[in-house]
Amino acid sequence: MKYNDIREGRFIERPNRFIAYCEIEGEVKRCHVKNTGRCRELLTPDARVFLDYKPGAQRKTEYDLIGVMKGERLINMDSNAPNAVFGEYLKEGGLGFVPDYVKPECTHGDSRFDFYFEYEGKRCFAEVKGVTLEENGIVRFPDAPTARGRKHMLGLIDCVNEGYGAMAVLVIQMDNVKHFEPNYLTDPDFAESLIEAEKAGVKILALSCKVGRDTIKIKDPVPVKLERGREFQE
Q1: CA–CA gap between residue 50 and residue 76 (Å, rounded)
Q2: pLDDT digits (tens, 9 = 90+) for 16-59
Q3: What is the dihedral of CA 69, 114, 155, 121, to 10 degrees?
Q4: Which of 11, 24, 47, 65 sits most deeply, having the most CB atoms within 10 A of its CB?
Q5: Alpha-helical runs (H) found in the chain
Q6: Which of 196, 74, 206, 190 is nearest to 131 (CA)?
Q7: 159: exposed, middle or buried (C-beta count within 10 Å: 0-12, 13-18, 19+)?
């Protein structure tokens, strides 16, 4: 995935989930934040940020805030990027096969999943979650409670019970991490649902990304630790 016109800036403040003020080329600009998560550990005063310049008559802002430096680590925080890069990865054979059919945004039961795909006669659903929360090389999801996330995991269990393949994909929007684990402290219900899903046969896959100032692409699988003391590598 590549952005067209990235500008560098300095983060000033975020008055609400959707808007941030950043200094760009000496001017303070109102910017759209492409991530409704808390991102408090990322959007700190004077943080170095990257913004996609997208002027248009139908837009209220000229910039989308899509990346931030956390120390020496570049993190993509565009909530649209995980689906886009996983779609590319899937179609290019990243999972070990090239699907015969791929359909984004597909409903099953009372859940809407990010992808439905078919290969070698198998029918599968995949739900993608973007991960931006990192501490000492350990990445976690979510950064805020997500009833919707738990609902998706339970929906994937239903898919397995009905004979479909099912996959929960954690797209880590950065590189060089140690492992992924659910955020037990912030949302124990989601953590338990992820454990339940894995035990039911849902494949849990965490994928790191190579992130540039104007690019993001899935790089490698990383270890997943679901229950404390239990770790496995896909």
Answers
A1: 9
A2: 999 999 999 999 999 999 998 889 899 999 999 999 999 887 88
A3: -130
A4: 65
A5: 81-91, 147-161, 188-200
A6: 206
A7: buried
